[in-house]
Write a sequence for this structure.
């Protein structure tokens, strides 16, 4: 415990020394009353909360074609029907979540809906699923972006893990600056990407339908070696369901808007619902457009391109880099190396990096709500200096970095873990909304409101049925391909949060103030005060003077004999000065200081259990971090051990050394100290007192 106290003290001093670079990196601290300035208009909220589903069109079409390639090129003609199924699902989910944001605008999203209507266990299941999905969103999006960028810059491919971790750190830093500032940074590339995709779809349609041009992707002349040629019956149905589940990656991040309603400007629910509709329309249009252009330009994709992608009947080899579908389509429509091709390729890579921002906004908010409900550590509930949930942001970055390192920043492996969590939350959330409307319909008598509720219930009922069906499909088709890892992660989160809640509940029960008299409120019979001294100096004399002021029943000074000569000198000076406090010397044959003091205090408690022991420790106050390494170590260890001793009160008597003036001057600076936001707005001091102090 003493070591932890020392580490905490040293960390606080080091944080002061590093405050200047911190301010440069994340900006000046913001007062709590400036929270309204960080709220988002719809034009900024769209890239902040919808960058994940919008950017998923860069890899979701490719995932569909990759799965279909198992049966060969002939299976590609099923892709429009799969795209249509994804579109129906997207519109259903968007319509369902528009009901959520109106009914539950507090920001709890799926977690609040499930907890309120289905119970705490269902809510905790949803929370576990969302936390896993947010971590995977960061890992998958950044890994995919690195692979897109690597097709143009070989260095990135050669060091993709290091580059992915660097991007995670950069995104973390940007989000620590605050939601609004990060949103401004992310808006431009997101809108450039969306505009580029729409221009590509429009120009491709114009060239094909009006000009009659023949557009061909760079892989159009390749063929695919099918792993299972001529699939039929159940095997074909299973393949199509697996392709559909891969295409459902386009829906990830839809729930983030319902979790982030508090970040919108007023009217919050209306703005969030409008943003949801805009996101759904844009994502569906881009997804379908890319699928159609991929078929038109004859894009070829293979799960194992080195052996399954054939050029003139021969495998392309291990050195071949399989570009994403969107890159191949852009090359066919705009021409390789053209200005629009370069802009879209760059915007695609960048927006995939920024897609992780959806998780950076969803995870900390959900973590704060869970911390408020005592399912996660309380530190996740507080806002940082920039009014962002800094601890949640850092936790998300750490988990995503660990996952990226384990899977080597390989998006193909990571994406198999994807989608499971989000469809668990979709299904339970929509089921909870059905129960929500049932509860309100039981008491509502107004015909107009009842019609609105019945329509909303029908939407949520269909959403629950469809997302539940998709969840079953995803589990069946992806379980052995990595979905089990996501389920394991959900179980770990669930068990951990349950244990944290149990701990907080037991602590609250133990600390609850009793209604009747107890040992905690009954006055002790007597108080024994013990002043620890090592030599006679100013701190020791101040501690003795303070101890006399307490007027304890008994007072004694205590020292430990680790050096006979020093102890003898202390006794002689004690007697020479005529100090009227008895000095007790504890022998320590093994030259320990902490153990003899602890044993002596315990012995006092054992002899008089109804008495309290007050241990008074003189301490130096220094101003430089390195001075903390040279002073107060024995005091810190003693305090740490004494905290575990019942009936013992520990008091520190500080003595300020000259160097502490430097720390005092730093504390008087105008800029806010770290953590000032957590302590609330600073109260301005009267000008007269400030002048007199100067």
């Amino acid at each position: 415990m003493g070591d932890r106290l020392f580490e905490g003290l040293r960390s606080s001093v080091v944080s002061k020394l590093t405050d200047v670079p911190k301010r440069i990196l994340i900006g000046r601290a913001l007062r709590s009353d400036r929270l309204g300035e960080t709220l988002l208009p719809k034009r900024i909220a769209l890239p902040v909360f919808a960058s994940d589903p919008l950017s998923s069109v860069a890899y979701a079409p490719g995932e569909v074609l990759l799965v279909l390639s198992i049966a060969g090129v002939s299976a590609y003609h099923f892709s429009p029907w799969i795209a249509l199924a994804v579109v129906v699902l997207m519109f259903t989910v968007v319509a369902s979540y528009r009901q959520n944001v109106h009914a539950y605008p507090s920001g709890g999203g799926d977690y609040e809906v499930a907890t309120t209507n289905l119970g705490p266990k269902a809510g905790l299941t949803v929370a576990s699923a969302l936390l896993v999905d947010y971590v995977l969103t960061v890992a998958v999006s950044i890994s995919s972006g690195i692979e897109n960028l690597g097709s143009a810059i070989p260095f990135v491919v050669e060091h993709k893990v290091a580059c992915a971790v660097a991007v995670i750190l950069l995104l973390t830093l940007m989000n620590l600056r605050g939601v609004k500032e990060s949103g401004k940074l992310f808006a431009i590339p997101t809108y450039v990407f969306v505009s580029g995709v729409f221009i590509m779809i429009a120009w491709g349609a114009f060239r094909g339908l009006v000009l009659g041009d023949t557009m061909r992707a760079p892989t159009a002349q390749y063929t695919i070696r099918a792993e299972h040629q001529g699939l039929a019956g159940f095997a074909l149905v299973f393949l199509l369901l697996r392709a559909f589940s891969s295409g459902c990656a386009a829906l990830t991040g839809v729930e983030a808007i319902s979790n982030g309603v508090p970040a919108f400007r007023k009217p919050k629910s209306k703005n969030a619902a409008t943003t949801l509709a805009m996101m759904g329309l844009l994502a569906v249009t881009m997804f379908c457009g890319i699928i159609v252009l991929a078929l038109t330009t004859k894009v070829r994709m293979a799960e194992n391109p080195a052996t399954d992608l054939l050029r003139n009947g021969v495998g392309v080899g291990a050195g071949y880099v399989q570009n994403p579908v969107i890159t191949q389509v852009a090359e066919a429509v705009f021409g390789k190396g053209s200005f629009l091709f370069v802009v879209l390729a760059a915007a695609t890579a960048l927006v995939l990096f920024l897609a992780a921002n959806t998780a950076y906004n969803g995870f900390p908010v959900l973590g704060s709500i869970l911390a408020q409900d005592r399912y996660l550590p309380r530190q996740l509930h507080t806002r940082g200096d920039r009014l962002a949930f800094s601890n949640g942001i850092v936790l998300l970055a750490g988990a995503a970095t660990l996952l990226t390192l384990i899977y080597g920043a390989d998006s193909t492996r990571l994406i198999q873990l994807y989608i499971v969590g989000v469809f668990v939350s979709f299904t339970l959330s929509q089921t909870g909304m059905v129960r929500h409307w049932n509860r309100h319909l039981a008491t509502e008598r107004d015909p107009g409101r009842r019609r609105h509720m019945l329509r909303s219930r029908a939407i949520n009922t269909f959403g629950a049925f469809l997302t539940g069906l998709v969840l079953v499909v995803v589990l069946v088709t992806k379980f052995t391909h990595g979905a089990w890892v996501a389920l394991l992660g959900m179980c770990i989160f669930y068990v951990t949060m349950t244990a944290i809640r149990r701990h907080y509940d037991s602590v609250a029960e133990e600390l609850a103030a009793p209604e009747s008299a107890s040992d905690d409120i009954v006055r002790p019979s007597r108080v024994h005060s013990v002043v620890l001294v090592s030599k006679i100096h100013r701190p020791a004399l101040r501690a003795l003077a303070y101890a006399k002021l307490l007027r304890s029943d008994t007072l004694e000074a205590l020292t430990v004999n680790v050096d006979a000569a020093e102890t003898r000198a202390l006794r002689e000076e004690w007697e020479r000065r005529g100090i009227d406090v008895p000095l007790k010397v504890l022998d320590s044959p093994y030259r320990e200081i902490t153990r003899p003091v602890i044993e002596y205090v315990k012995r006092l408690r054992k002899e008089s259990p109804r008495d309290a022991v007050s241990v008074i420790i003189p301490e130096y106050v220094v101003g430089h971090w390195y001075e903390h390494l040279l002073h107060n170590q024995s005091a810190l260890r003693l305090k740490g051990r004494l905290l575990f001793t019942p009936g013992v009160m520990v008091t520190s008597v500080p003595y300020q050394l000259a160097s502490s003036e430097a720390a005092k001057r730093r504390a008087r600076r105008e800029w806010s100290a770290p953590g000032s936001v957590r302590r609330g707005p600073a109260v301005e001091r009267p000008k007269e007192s400030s002048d007199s102090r100067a």
